[in-house]
Amino acid sequence: MQREILYTFVVKVNPCDMNPFVLNSYSGPEFFCDREEETEMLLKNIENRSNTAIFSQRRMGKTALVKHVFHFLEKKKGIIPVYLDIYPTSNLKEFSDALSTAIYNVFPIHATIGRKFWEHLKLLRPVVTVNTLSGAPELSLDISSPEQIEKTIPQLFSFLTQQNSHVVIAIDEFQQILSYPEKRVEALLRTTIQGLNNVSFLFLGSDRTLMSEIFNSAKRPFYASSKYLILDQISAASYQLFIEKAFVRSGVMVDDGAIKKILDSTQRHTFYTQLLCHEIFSDNISHLKEETVIRTLYKIIKQYEPVFFQYRSLLTHSQWKVLKAVAAEEKVVKPYSQDFIKKYDLNSSSNVKRSLDALTEKSIVYHNMSIKEPFYEVEDKFLMRWLQNN
After folding, report:
1. Of 130, 218, 388, 390, which has the fewest CB atoms closer than 10 Å, so is most exposed?
2. Partners of 376 in the beta sheet?
3. Are 382 and 304 within 8 A, CB to CB?
4. Measuring CA to CA, how many Å separate 359 from each of 112, 179, 328, 351?
């Protein structure tokens, strides 16, 4: 029989209290798991005016980590954190709009610096709109010619350097700049950034191949311009303790194997671990058992099943077979080996390569390029579990 962990001195909180397993946002250190070494490293780099490039798989917690670091920076005088996500942008004009919006949100117009920023932008005739989904203000600048745009970006950055503060700028999904149609984007940004005083940068990216191309190629402008942080899974011990404490604080009894089942099911991938725990907690349980985890995981997979079925119609027969094979293995170190090809009847190594390239490009399969042991895995852990059972 499994040993049960019960802290009888903890009173069950009101069900309307906040779910401790937060999704898609940052709600404070008490809802943030571990990343102590990474946080310390980033704070140290910022203090020493060093730029940092942060690489990780999608939904591994890069943005939450930066928001966590910003939480501590906001408590320090003379430091201004600025965050912008450029994933939705497709050219330099949209990059300029995203940057001006980020600055505007940090320095609203009712503040003294905000009024200065508005004066700074007047010649560009900014238009403020409200995002219909988030309700946040967004700026659009009246610029169109390449010459105007190339002048505007340095002007926006230079405004930040004119403040008597240390500015920290986090640019999320930085590899997006490689898709811009304009030439010499990297050179423009690198030249601009290099001339800034009192500004530190955090470059976040979820495409490790493209991020490595930007920062590790000696032929590229950003070569040797930043320190590196590769974000992997949170350790099993740290995640186990975090999840256990969160449930116990709410008076939930926890079986020994239940949390291990959670972490095994999601492979400690941050988003899927948080989502599974979030759904379990939402059911207002009094006792966390392995069967509770299995039941909730099945419920989530059934909710996403219509999406998973669409993959089958969007992929070729070969791609579907390779995807199922990767899901069955969970991690494929030697995808071109005869053992793997024969086991799943995948025809040939060239067929496997074409399929893996296509699946990786579609972000359905992730190529983990670990120096120790590169491997392929299914990006979506719930899709992986669904494939294993279908």
Report:
1. 218
2. 332, 367
3. yes
4. 50, 19, 16, 12
Q: What is the pTM of this model?
A: 0.89
> In angstroms, what CA-CA distances link 138 with 24, 30, 98, 144?
20, 30, 8, 18
Please tell me the least confidently modeled range out of 153-162, 177-186, 258-267, 336-345.
Answer: 153-162
Query: With contact defined as beta carbons under 8 Å apart, do 189 and 218 qualify?
Result: no
Contact 247, 288 (CB under 8 A): yes
Assess contact for 389 and 349: CB atoms under 8 A. Answer: no
Residue tagged 């390029």 (tokens):
369
List, in order, residues 6 or more apart from 341 with CB less than 8 Å away.
347, 348, 349, 352
Residue 186 CB partners (closer than 8 Å, separation 6+) = 177, 178, 214, 220, 221, 222
Residue pair 186/214 in contact (Cβ under 8 Å)? The answer is yes
Query: Could you read off the pLDDT of 125-153 as tens digits, one per residue?
Result: 888 888 877 778 888 888 878 888 888 89
Which tens digit of pLDDT belongs to each residue from 50-77? 999 999 999 999 999 999 999 999 988 8
